[in-house]
């Protein structure tokens, strides 16, 4: 399946790209957003980060069509500070994060991200790291599994599913995605199995977040990225589930929304903030995009600008 960048036009418009600006795409993927940045940034530079070597390999030829003013970096985006320091970059005009798993990663059955294709349990975005889905499913304790299913999957049957996994792996390791799906289904009541939507979706999401430390990385890169913005510089973030969106919303709110005060108290100093929200409500896909790209359904775009 061809990869289609979600909310592409809305994201590029929100970045407000300057011809001579310095930009960071923290999630290069197959280069859809990066290519559009380079089309508009002829005299500046783009730093494109991805922890997936295959993504970088496939994107470089695409990006080179628009010039050579870009640098691809194989690393996790939580290392944004160290990456920019090593490049001698003190501040930037824009930062983009397009979170979640890219379509090519989902569609490559060998990567083990999808509950709809049978493969060895993997789910690593960075193929060089040790922790994978197999280790989580087969080596985490009952308590650890329950915690991640509750926190990262928000699954009401977290404990029951964790118990069923523990029971199943005592007989033999759970090696594949379909084996895990069968175990998950066996823990759920029929009324849940009859509902719309795949019964393993929340658990697969939870395991993927754990394997790739997605929320920890996101918290770090948001805070470091805000510090690196120039005045009038912007950070834009596309999220695909409520945990990510909640984190982005709250971190942006901390720096861009004045704290509530008691208006009855006299002589209160007006708080001067360094940032402002570009949009208070998230931008979501249009009906046309939803028809063209089903994976845009859960996408939410938020942006913030540094004022001074």
From TrEMBL:
Alphabetized InterPro entries for the sequence: RsmH, SAM-dep_MeTrfase_MraW_recog, SAM-dependent_MTases_sf
Predominant place of localization: cytoplasm
Top EC group: transferase
Residues binding S-adenosyl-L-methionine, per UniProt: 31-33, 50, 77, 98, 105
Catalyzed reactions: cytidine(1402) in 16S rRNA + S-adenosyl-L-methionine = N(4)-methylcytidine(1402) in 16S rRNA + S-adenosyl-L-homocysteine + H(+)
Entry keyword annotation includes rRNA processing: yes
Gene3D superfamilies in the cross-refs: Putative methyltransferase TM0872, insert domain (1.10.150.170), Vaccinia Virus protein VP39 (3.40.50.150)
Compartment(s) of residence: Cytoplasm
A Pfam family reported for this protein in Swiss-Prot or TrEMBL: Methyltransf_5
Domain of life: Bacteria
GO biological process: rRNA base methylation
Keyword Methyltransferase on entry: yes
EC numbers, comma separated: 2.1.1.199
Gene Ontology CC: cytoplasm
Annotated keywords: Cytoplasm, Methyltransferase, rRNA processing, S-adenosyl-L-methionine, Transferase
Gene Ontology molecular function: any one: rRNA (cytosine-N4-)-methyltransferase activity
Function: Specifically methylates the N4 position of cytidine in position 1402 (C1402) of 16S rRNA.
Family per similarity comment: Belongs to the methyltransferase superfamily. RsmH family.
Name assigned to this protein: Ribosomal RNA small subunit methyltransferase H
Organism, as annotated: Floccifex porci
């Amino acid at each position: 399946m061809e990869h289609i960048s979600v909310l592409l036009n809305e994201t590029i418009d929100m970045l407000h790209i300057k011809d001579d600006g310095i930009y960071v795409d923290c999630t290069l993927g197959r280069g859809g957003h990066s290519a559009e940045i380079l089309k508009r940034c002829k005299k500046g530079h783009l730093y494109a980060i991805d922890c997936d070597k295959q993504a970088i390999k496939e994107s470089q030829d695409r990006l080179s069509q628009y010039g050579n003013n870009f640098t691809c970096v194989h690393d996790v985006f939580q290392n944004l500070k160290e990456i920019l320091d090593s490049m001698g970059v003190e501040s930037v005009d824009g930062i983009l994060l397009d979170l979640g798993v890219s379509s090519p990663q989902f569609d490559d059955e060998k990567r083990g991200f999808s509950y709809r294709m049978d493969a060895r349990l993997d789910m690593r975005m960075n193929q060089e790291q040790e922790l994978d889905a197999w280790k989580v499913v087969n080596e985490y304790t009952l308590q650890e599994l329950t915690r991640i299913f509750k926190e990262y999957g928000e699954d009401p049957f977290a404990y029951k599913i964790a118990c069923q996994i523990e029971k199943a792996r005592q007989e033999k390791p759970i090696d594949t995605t379909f084996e895990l799906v069968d175990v998950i289904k066996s823990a759920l009541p029929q009324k849940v199995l009859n509902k719309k939507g795949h019964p393993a979706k929340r658990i697969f999401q939870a395991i993927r977040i754990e394997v790739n430390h997605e929320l920890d990385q996101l918290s770090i890169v948001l805070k470091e990225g805000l510090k690196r913005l120039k005045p009038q510089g912007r950070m834009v973030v596309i999220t695909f589930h409520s945990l990510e969106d909640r984190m982005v919303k709250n971190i942006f709110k901390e720096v861009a929304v004045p704290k509530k005060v008691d208006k009855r108290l006299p002589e209160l100093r007006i708080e001067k903030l360094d940032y402002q929200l570009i949009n208070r409500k998230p931008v979501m896909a249009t009906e046309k995009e939803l028809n063209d790209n089903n994976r845009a359904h859960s996408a939410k775009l938020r942006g913030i600008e540094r004022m001074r």
